[in-house]
Amino acid sequence: MFKKILIANRGEIACRVIKTARKMGIATVAVYSDADAQALHVQMADEAVHIGPAPANQSYIVIDKIMDAIRQTGAEAVHPGYGFLSENKLFAEALEKEGVAFIGPPASAIEQMGDKITSKKIAQEAGVSTVPGYMGLIEDADEAVKISTEIGYPVMIKASAGGGGKGMRIAWNDQEAREGFQSSKNEAANSFGDDRIFIEKFVTQPRHIEIQVLADAHGNCIYLNERECSIQRRNQKVIEEAPSPFLDEATRQAMGQQSCDLARAVGYTSAGTVEFIVDGERNFYFLEMNTRLQVEHPVTELITGVDLVEQMIRVAYGETLTLAQEDIGINGWAMESRLYAEDPYRNFLPSIGRLTRYRPPAEVDTGPRIVRNDTGVYEGGEISMYYDPMIAKLCTWGATREEAIDGMRDALDGFEVEGIGHNLPFCAAVMDHPRFVSGEITTAFIAEEYPEGFEGVTLGETSLRRVAAAAAAMHRVAEIRRTRVSGRMDNHERKVGTDWVVSAQGVSMPVTIAADREGSTVTFEDGTAIRVASGWTPGDTLAHIDADGTALTLKVGKITQGFRMRYRGADLKVHVRSPRQAELAALMPEKLPPDTSKMLLCPMPGLVVKIDVEVGDEVQEGQALCTVEAMKMENILRAEKRAVVSKINAGPGDSLAVDEVILEFE
User: Fold this and answer.
1) What is the pTM (predicted TM-score) of this model?
2) What percent of the chain has pLDDT over 70?
3) Which of 101, 107, 275, 494 is the most exposed place for a label (fewest CB within 10 A)?
4) Active site residues
5) Do the Cβ atoms of 237 and 229 come closer than 8 Å?
6) Which of 419, 416, 433 is nearest to 553 (CA)?
């Protein structure tokens, strides 16, 4: 077996590979840029080599720098993770020339499958079902519009060398095809150094289901079932699960066999993923093959018990697969939520900064409920603008889909992240969404269920009352603590009352608290009572509450006369006041936010790519005003209403902070 491997990547996937290598007794080498000098993967590895400045195109995707690191350390093999050089045939060829093993497929397979146009042609020849589309290269926007019209809208515009949602647009008309072609081309050039574009029919009401394959160099190939990846935003997966709640065994077997046929057709070895679009009748169409380890591989590991990274290393060393197809079953159900550094309340735009608090739920690897968190960050670390915004993958396993979802709800409730915007509330909202719970989902789920963006969660009456009861009981505990403060005036004793008014979500709830040694009974005005038991003490940021036998995990922050509480995607200001305080609070005027209706604000930290208007221009609703790049994604900012541009405060190349004014209107 290899004695030392280098991981040509960063973040959570580098940490993930290091864990398996350590288990196998293999020494590891990390590489890092200026921005990652203090990164977790650097701390975990046995050795670390600096490879350049923060931008990936000056460090992580510079082949010569990775090769230098290999020579310096004497690494015998390289695991590329995902992204960066993982699907770069030139990198695989350079390693082969150097006599270093590539923990991935042969360069020829990367070349054939990494190019989406070539891969579709090979898939057709191998008997794999494919989506109708134009497989030739497209020169300009006019040709893109012509081809899109011939295929019939809607169409998907894709970068041939793309991945991770970059260089991808859906167009429903000529204008969107023209704009989408240019944006996809720009993103592809910036992210992959390859701006070739192709177009295919966009299948409506589709599910995104992928098959995990594993092949060795001795002619053996197996599939490890499927993953449902339909919960996507901007073509980027957010929630994944295994198995799919939609497939039957016959469809699973057909998809698996075709995936293995495709792998054999290109002489594939190592782990790989064949992605399909599946319609409502379980017809499936080949999308692409990812010749690398997928981000969402943990859910497959959880239901099969197979360590895919270990298998990749063993295959690269030349070993024969010890697993046969009949050895692969489906044990239980697994869920994965991707934690992104993005603000769900600002249309999921990137959010960067320092993690002032980062406390994942405790990992559990056995028992009726498994919790796994693959991460590459730590409390006090910084989320950089230079790389992908995903900071962790939270996974849960249960015997059934319902148990896996329930486990994910609790794990999300107990995941503390502060200092940046993040999508934990949104993931929690999805877990409680009736459509998701039913399994009746498509890739349009987010667009259809959150058409105006995510505005938070409104708790139902039952949940709201439980939270209110918990807040009242916790407030009483805090009040008792305050009565015991030292240095009080003589003959002055503060009494803690029993009558309070809890206000949350625009609702005022008068309550009476009766406390004893085991907890508190909180009685509402209509006579309903909730028994609250908890070990919470003032200052704890997590409260584990038992409310009439229902377990609640609440994130808690102190505010004046109450708490900020976060639960199941809801972010609440819960005030607990005496009846007189509540009476006076109701008379206070509401503080209104400043008027920014005549300004275009930068919605996230980013770089201005271009300004599409000039001072004096009259713009119409929906018109493109400027393009801002953040985390390698181009975002077109559009006019919300008809207006006249009165001032331009930024230009191409300017780096802007969130809420900086780009344009002003009359």
Assistant:
1) 0.84
2) 97
3) 494
4) 288
5) yes
6) 416
